[in-house]
Design goal:
Length: 156
Amino acid sequence: MFRKVYGEKRDVTLVGRWYIRNYGPDDRLKDEISGKNVITTNGLDFLASFLNSAAAAASTFTMNHIAIGTDATAEAASNTALGTESARTTGTVSYVSDAIYRVTATFASGSGTGAIVEYGLLSSSTGGTMLSRDTESVINKGANDTLIVTTEVTLA
């Protein structure tokens, strides 16, 4: 894709970031990490397909599900799913500014408990297309902890 910048063509890239916060049962912050992710090949195809159909029905863009998991295998553009998914939930979508798409999901007590190291942004509550995946340092989510996961995808 290209966009015009004062008569010149410029490549458009997607840059993704993840922000993860784990809160204990007393609502105190236990862990906090952030990192860059890998935009997947299937995710790029999904985005191109959506842009093609946006005029027909903007509601068809469902890239708002965040999954967490326990597989520390490095992320790759060929990923189509998390290695070992623990939980998935529908996130809250927002447009920040400066071409940033943000999705925030909350994994409440009892949801996604364990040694969480991987995160994915997907198009469905089960299966679906993965837009991005990230692996980070382990966050040990206890049974009574609340994990808040935010991802931002920037069109740069």
